[in-house]
């Protein structure tokens, strides 16, 4: 039997994403084949416009590929109805974006309890503690950008999600803050067994101990 670390938790098989506008055809993703092991930490590095956000939306089942399959737990999600895909999102996938998209009128705890299947303040506090944020009653406009990202990372874990997708989570941060967020994610990968897939256009982030992928013109090269 395969060890858990050898198990392809997420697999992309020959993924293409083609957007058609009135007189333009854009190949946002072309022929992507790669897999991500359970409990692995993966960084996809690529320049602006290479397809990182498109890839994250496809991995997060927010969009379907034009061609190809996204397998999660060996299950092909690409031909499932959106209702089934939504239940996979709810049960498995947490997402973090470059800008925090916390709800401005809610404090940190309430931002976490809102998406919970059943609201649990103690769990919200425990998660916030895990990401190093203990000003539980702060509102987003009282937080630094780094603090907001910490709260977003905690929010991505509220329903015991095991796959966390992050689209340029450090893109708006200074290098010191970016380093702190990366250290946090590495720690959570190890302590919580999270599978992490993160995009960035900052080559320096691939210095961290992780699986490195390079994205160029809509396709992925494993480093
Ligand atoms: N909904 C859409 N309709 C048409 N074209 C799109 C759409 N979404 C993305 N694209 C195009 O697909 C390509 C990849 O875009 P994407 O946003 O995925 O790149 P990115 O690597 O995330 O860029 P950035 O680093 O600037 O965020 C770009 O040419 C973009 O214009
Ligand atoms: Mg993007």
What does this 3D model show about the protein?
- The protein has 223 residues and is an alpha/beta fold.
- The protein is built from six helices and ten strands, in the order βββαββαβαααβαβββ.
- The chain has a domain at 39-61 and 90-222: P-loop containing nucleotide triphosphate hydrolases (Rossmann fold).
- Helices cover 29% and strands 29% of the residues.
- Helix 4 (121-130) crosses helix 5 (145-155).
- The two termini are 27 Å apart.
What is the structure about, briefly put?
With 223 residues, the chain is an alpha/beta fold.
Task: Summarize this structure as a short list of keywords or feature phrases.
223 residues; alpha/beta; 4-stranded antiparallel sheet; 10 strands; 29% helix; globular; binds adenosine-5'-triphosphate; binds magnesium ion
CATH architecture of the domain at 39-61 and 90-222: 3-Layer(aba) Sandwich
Task: Calculate Rg over CA atoms.
Answer: 17 Å
Give the SSE order as H and E letters.
EEEHEEHEHHHEHEEE
Number of strands: 10
CATH topology of the domain at 39-61 and 90-222, which one?
Rossmann fold
Uncertain ranges: none
Helix content: 25-40%
Distance between the termini: 27 Å
Q: What is the strand content?
A: 25-35%
Could you say which overall geometry the principal axes of the C-alpha atoms support? globular
Derived from helix and strand composition plus strand pairing, the structural class reads alpha/beta
Largest sheet: 6 strands, mixed
